[in-house]
């Protein structure tokens, strides 16, 4: 059997697949061994190359994982079956998606469908300035991203349109963080944000940073995929009070919990370890000494409890709402 790539023009490297699907390289390799999918070809140097059809399958798999499906039930299914499962899993929600979307995210969604990128960016920023950062994230950005994902699954949006919206939201969030009023040099808590290798939950991490900043925290965002020794070193250098890690539905629950337990053991005891995860399995099993946050909205309460334990005062400003 010839497993060499016929032409590089129709193939994707593992790095390109990772960027496109937000499925980590390690996850792809594990699935390859465990489920026999994906089935990459090899170039002359033995490097993995993925056909377009398999990348399309992986995109749908990612969507279903985000919707709560387990990898063992969907990885390796034909594209047509994945599409059918996606339609069934959407059910009544998919049929009523647009009417159920509130006015603000719905208007933004229509700008995206009209390919009015400049208008989308302008409207995102205006919504943020008018309604405040917490409202923008919880009531606008997150519902909009969910709807876009569902619309893509229904074949109503292209991948590039999803990427455009994510980039626009990221730009607005970075601007909000950069222009936030500076806190005191001794502002607390000091929060280090990142993900473990293989987890590409970058936009979620940025949303968390914005909400921590809103609470008056001093943040250092390392971005995604930081090796554990570097997390420990950065926590010491930043004199972190809290190390906050983000996880997605794709993160393998067992391995993620093991890594959290190891990191907890390697961090100084006074440093708190928080894990943001939508996975019920991770929330249910938990790790001793690790605070599990099911939603970004838990950050506000978590910071309040931290200040109560530390005997300090919250330094948040009035950007929770501009109503």
UniProtKB/TrEMBL annotation:
Residues 11-88 form the HTH merR-type domain. PROSITE patterns: B12_BINDING, HTH_MERR_2. SMART domains: HTH_MERR. SUPFAM superfamilies: Cobalamin (vitamin B12)-binding domain, Putative DNA-binding domain. Residues 188-313 form the B12-binding domain. One of its GO terms (molecular function) is DNA binding. InterPro entries: Cbl-bd_cap, Cobalamin-bd, Cobalamin-bd_sf, DNA-bd_dom_put_sf, MerR-type_HTH_dom, MerR_fam, Meth_synthase_dom. Pfam families: B12-binding, B12-binding_2, MerR_1. Keywords: DNA-binding, Repressor, Transcription, Transcription regulation. Gene3D superfamilies: 1.10.1660.10, Cobalamin-binding domain, Methionine synthase domain. The keyword Repressor applies. This is MerR family transcriptional regulator. It comes from Sphaerotilus natans subsp. natans DSM 6575.
